[in-house]
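# nightly structure sweep
# worker-07 picked up a monomer target from the shared queue
# config: single-sequence mode, recycle default, output format = structure tokens
# input follows
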Amino acid sequence: MNPALASAMVPLLRRIDPERAHAFSLTALQWGLAGQDHSVDDTRLTVRVLGKTFPNPIGLAAGFDKNGAALRPLARLGFGLLEAGTVTPRPQAGNPRPRLFRLMQDRAVINRMGFNNAGLEDFVRNLKHFTARSVPVGANVGINKEGADPDRDFPLAVAAVAPHADYIVINVSSPNTPGLRDLQAEARLRSILQAVNQAVPQSPPLLVKISPDLSPDGVAEAVETCVAAKVDGLIVSNTTIARPQGLRSPRAREAGGLSGAPLFDLSTNVLRQAAQCARGRLVLIGVGGIFSGRDILEKLRAGASLVQLYTAFAYEGPLLLRRLKRELLAALDEHGLASVTEAMGADLR
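# output follows
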């Protein structure tokens, strides 16, 4: 099957429970049913940051492949980077079902999955098997809902994935694990990062994923804490617990984190705040509500070096990537920008 046929199946998947549809998609990927994009990316899309070369700036966000089980087939679809996880030290089932909801009218999703995953041992095994990579792969790590000690568990997870990941993300911003977002506070985050640095002094590039619901002061604190701890970058942002005005879907009041188009403005504003605070001291990855090449360009101009998406991929399938690259190149031309590198932070200069 090629990506066009795989994308054609997406409307059929929308007719079944979203979590079952997601599981089916992962299985189809592992069986090679999503095909492969054989095209070569335009060099204007190349990004060099974090000591790596990314063929294009478009990544798959954490949450789609929690266990790193489908990285090889995902890499064939044309992403510029992949991020697996979130993984926790011990396996956990996550929150009770139903916990994943489509907001079709809003091009959005609400989830309260709760870090359901097979645990660190299984995750590391899958990373080890993904060799000869065509794109960089990140590992997103979190903590268990019960019995967690952040100063112990984050270093443990980072140490386990460090030999096998191109970069590592500390996830302290999911709204679906009680108390996790409290770890974004300056003292708590500083303690975690110090523990990680002591346990793994020679890790791959380290990033922290923050919430779109942080106040401007909270963003500034997170930036300075990460810079002081010699963190390499921020991922901005996770899902939001806010419910923007104008949501039309009947599921809009479900509890959990909102992703998709309604998150775009909020996440981009927080990205811009982080870029203004960081002043080039951190690499920023922009996430939240990307559905078009123009959306990508806006994230880049707001200070991102790379972007990630999830909801749009779930809605449109593999053909989305070809469209986004085509639209991004057209948007660069429209704005008189020679490359994505020239676009980075353009609105801040």
